[in-house]
Write a structure and sequence with these properties.
alpha/beta; two-stranded antiparallel sheet; globular
């Protein structure tokens, strides 16, 4: 039996990077497999003891595929040591950077009807240069409305890596 499965649902790759960082803390003690949400739809989750799911937000929502995955696998997730974390730019704000205060975590728990054993939330990244024209200017508008950075020639990483490391250490 595999020990730990880490699944990422990532729009721009940052959630996958966070998953890899978490795996570094677990690697010495466990057999770990990291896969995308699309690939996770094709495997038997019951062969894993611990299942960690990391998911990003785009335009205020987690992926529809994520909710479908949770619904299809909820009974297995409930039986396992299941962990969830969300990556969103709103978490850059002190008053919205915990599972109890983050609006996307609250919304996710309500919609998914899933109660992971441990929940985390991490601030993400805004990478204007890599976005399409449409995404760049919609995200710029969102950032303007939320007092975030709007210089589209720059990337802005808000992730508190020490918080990610602490979360990972608690999973060992």
């Amino acid at each position: 039996m595999h020990s730990t499965l880490i699944i990422y649902s990532s729009t721009d790759g940052h959630t996958e990077t966070i998953c890899k960082r978490i795996s570094n803390y677990l690697n010495n003690m466990n057999e770990i497999k990291i896969i995308s949400l699309d690939d996770a739809l094709k495997i038997n989750l019951s062969t894993f003891n611990k299942i960690i799911i990391g998911a990003s937000i785009r335009y205020g929502k987690h992926s529809k595929k994520l909710y479908k995955f949770i619904k299809l696998n909820k009974s297995i997730l409930d039986q396992r040591n299941s962990i969830f974390f969300s990556v969103n730019v709103v978490a850059r704000k002190l008053e919205k950077n915990t599972p109890e205060t983050n609006p996307y975590i609250k919304k996710f728990l309500k919609i998914s009807n899933w109660r992971p054993k441990k929940i985390g939330v991490f601030a993400g990244r805004v990478d204007y240069p890599s976005y399409s024209f449409f995404d760049k200017y919609v995200i710029k508008l969102i950032m303007f409305l939320t007092n975030g950075p709007t210089d589209t020639s720059q990337s802005y990483e808000f992730t508190d890596w020490s918080k990610v490391d602490q979360f990972a250490k608690e999973l060992v």
